[in-house]
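Hey, quick one: can you model this chain's 3D structure?
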Amino acid sequence: MRGPAAGAGAGGAARGAHDQADTAPPDDQGEDGPRITRRQAREMYDEYVYLQFLKAEEDCNGYLLNKKGQAAGWSAQSLFRGPARIAYANASDELKEWWATHGRLTQAEFIEKATGQPQRWATAARFNESKEQQKR
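Sure thing. Here's the predicted structure for all 136 residues.
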């Protein structure tokens, strides 16, 4: 036999409302699941950059910097973040070709893709990347 706590009477109505609240998506979830915050997207970007660096280093046999970049003391890993004009100015030909195949996303572009929210710097980054690729 079921009592009032099992769904009958006033207590059951309150419980039913509570159950619905538990199944409603929280404010931080979109229709397709949890939304990614910008902070989380930045953390994901850090991981993306590191993995891209490791893969490029392997594929390019360690030749990531050109002579200008080496002389200036650039870190090869630093080429994977920041402005395209600086990255392309200091990247080896092997790395430029690797980027042509695998892509190179700035933080703004990555966050835009991860969150689905437009980033004001992403459009400029795409334009600059395209401009640098045309120099090759």
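One thing worth noting: The helical segments are 9-23, 38-59, 67-72, 84-90, 93-102, 107-115, 120-134.
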